[in-house]
């Protein structure tokens, strides 16, 4: 699946899952999501961002992890798009060399993070393709964990780059969005780790 195809299909897949959740979600499945989100660093955000997909998730840790990765990818891509679409406007506030450098690096970091999360999502969709053995499962999940961890590191690098930047328009416009995207990735990684630890394809 190409990057363009993934970009086109992701909103449709998430929308379909959300629609299913609106029509058929019930307290059992949403309670499952709430309970699972307790393993994350941001449980409230986890629940509010994923509960709408309850019908698609049911009580499957695999589906929950996959949806969480998809939601994180969508969030990171929107943040990267904001930077790209507003680069010139943000630059007007970035006469400070540190701010300009932080902005440039953040755009690169988020682009890398999006690619890594996309790789994780692709691997999640291929679970079982290499066989249903425990060894194959652990290999595939190790790839997912590695890519999600790398994405989180890239997002942290983005926000860390603004620590020495004076408060102002650039920092306010970018930092908050990047920090929020980082929370989604962190939650997705926690749910991936929970699923991987279960050891069940």
Automatic annotation (TrEMBL):
Pfam families: PMEI (PF04043)
Keyword terms, alphabetized: Signal
Keyword flag Signal: yes
InterPro entries: Invertase/methylesterase_inhib, Pectinesterase_inhib_dom, PME_Inhibitor
Pectinesterase inhibitor domain residues: 28-191
Gene3D superfamilies: Invertase/pectin methylesterase inhibitor family protein
Family listed: Belongs to the PMEI family.
NCBIfam families, A to Z: PME_inhib
PANTHER family linked: PECTINESTERASE INHIBITOR-LIKE, PLANT INVERTASE_PECTIN METHYLESTERASE INHIBITOR SUPERFAMILY PROTEIN
Protein's UniProt name: Pectinesterase inhibitor domain-containing protein
Naturally occurring in which organism (per UniProt): Linum tenue
């Amino acid at each position: 699946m190409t990057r363009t195809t993934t970009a086109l299909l992701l909103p449709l897949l998430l929308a379909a899952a959300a629609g299913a959740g609106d029509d058929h979600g019930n307290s059992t499945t949403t309670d499952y999501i709430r309970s699972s989100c307790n393993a994350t660093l941001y449980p409230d955000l986890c629940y509010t961002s994923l509960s709408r997909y309850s019908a698609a998730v049911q009580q499957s840790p695999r589906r929950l992890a996959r949806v969480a990765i998809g939601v994180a990818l969508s969030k990171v891509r929107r943040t990267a798009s904001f930077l790209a679409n507003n680069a010139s406007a943000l630059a007007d506030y970035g006469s400070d060399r540190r701010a300009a450098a932080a902005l440039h690096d953040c755009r690169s970091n988020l682009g890398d993070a999006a690619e890594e999360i996309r790789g994780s999502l692709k691997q999640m969709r291929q679970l079982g393709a290499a066989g249903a053995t425990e060894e194959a499962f652990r290999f595939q999940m190790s790839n997912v964990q590695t890519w999600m961890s790398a994405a989180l590191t890239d997002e942290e690098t983005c926000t860390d780059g603004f620590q020495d930047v004076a408060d102002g328009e650039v920092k306010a416009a970018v930092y908050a969005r990047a920090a929020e995207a980082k929370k989604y990735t962190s939650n997705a990684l926690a749910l991936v780790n929970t699923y991987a630890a279960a050891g069940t394809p």
